[in-house]
């Protein structure tokens, strides 16, 4: 079986590093990885892995990713970016990283792919933050996206570029709109949604966490529903996305909303209580943040996933209780 070379940007991040480990484990020696981030990824050592520190806002840094000893990648997972709250607070930096660098990577994939006479598969991790404003009760693949945040606008802009590059035959694009990923391990990220992991992760570790929605456990704001997916299920779906035949996608778009599940913030805390008891729940403090609440409230919480499931994507069918149990099991391994 011929070897496949895969480039992952944002590979030092939580989801990027988890994807890399999953690909290494399941590749059976047929996959070579080029991993890059602004901080050099630490996965390895492995003969099938090369790690590079790179600033993807610089063209020469992008080009070096296509000139390693592994050669021009067959597939790219574009997973780098500045997270939602960071993009909202610093518009210029967010646009530079979340749009300009992605366009630069697309242009490089086009040029180097043409040079090697190959159509590079380009998997892009987008976000439910592309939605906003008045929305139907359930989001379908035809629901128009009108973001209400800088991050959402930047993700949607990249989707349009990827669809156009695909239409013109420059790349083979696949756009995965991710639910909010819970429970993320490690330190909190500069994402508006990062508290959704923190209010579970920190109490399980005996640490305090801040919930920026509501002022107490009895606050009606905690009835806010959110659309979530576990890290393990999301990574399995990203692995799948690379191999779906191009003709399985709808003719006009390569966008797929990955399956998730709906839960209220209050119900998340009740699931925490089942596992960690009242002492765990008492470690959650409430400090209402209007900016955070506005952004999270603009995101949809219910999706029609039939199209995604017809392509083979899976969801977390057992909900929040099982997601927490899976997190505990994985962190112990």
TrEMBL record:
Highest taxon listed in the record's lineage: Eukaryota
Keyword annotations: Carbohydrate metabolism, NADP
Pfam families: Epimerase
UniProt domain NAD-dependent epimerase/dehydratase: residue ranges: 6-211
Listed name of the protein: NAD-dependent epimerase/dehydratase domain-containing protein
């Amino acid at each position: 079986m011929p070897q496949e070379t895969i480039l992952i940007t944002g590979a030092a991040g939580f989801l990027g590093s988890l994807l890399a480990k999953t690909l290494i484990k399941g590749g059976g020696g047929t996959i070579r990885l080029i991993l890059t981030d602004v901080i050099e990824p630490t996965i390895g050592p492995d003969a099938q892995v090369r790690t590079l520190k790179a600033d993807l806002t610089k063209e020469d840094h992008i080009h070096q990713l296509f000139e390693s000893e592994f050669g021009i990648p067959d597939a790219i997972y574009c997973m780098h970016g500045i997270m939602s709250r960071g993009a909202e607070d610093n518009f210029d930096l967010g646009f530079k990283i979340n749009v300009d660098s992605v366009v630069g990577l697309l242009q490089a994939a086009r040029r180097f792919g043409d040079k090697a006479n190959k159509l590079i598969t380009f998997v892009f991790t987008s976000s439910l933050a592309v939605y906003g404003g008045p929305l139907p009760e359930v989001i379908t693949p035809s629901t128009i996206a009108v973001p209400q945040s800088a991050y959402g606008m930047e993700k949607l802009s990249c989707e349009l570029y990827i669809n156009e590059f695909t239409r013109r035959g420059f790349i083979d694009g696949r756009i995965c709109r991710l639910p909010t990923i819970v429970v993320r391990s490690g330190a909190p990220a500069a994402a508006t949604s990062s508290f959704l992991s923190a209010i579970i992760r920190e109490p399980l570790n005996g640490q305090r966490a801040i919930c920026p929605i509501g002022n107490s456990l009895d606050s009606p704001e905690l009835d806010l529903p959110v659309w979530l997916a576990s890290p393990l299920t999301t990574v399995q779906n990203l692995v799948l996305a690379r191999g779906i035949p191009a003709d399985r996608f709808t003719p006009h778009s390569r966008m797929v909303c990955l399956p998730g599940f709906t839960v209220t913030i209050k119900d998340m805390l009740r699931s925490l209580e089942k596992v960690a008891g009242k002492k765990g729940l008492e470690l959650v403090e409430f400090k209402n943040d209007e900016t955070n609440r506005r952004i999270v409230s603009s995101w949809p919480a219910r999706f029609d996933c039939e199209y995604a499931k017809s392509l083979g994507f899976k969801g977390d069918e057992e909900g929040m209780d099982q997601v927490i149990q899976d997190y505990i099991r994985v962190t112990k391994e």
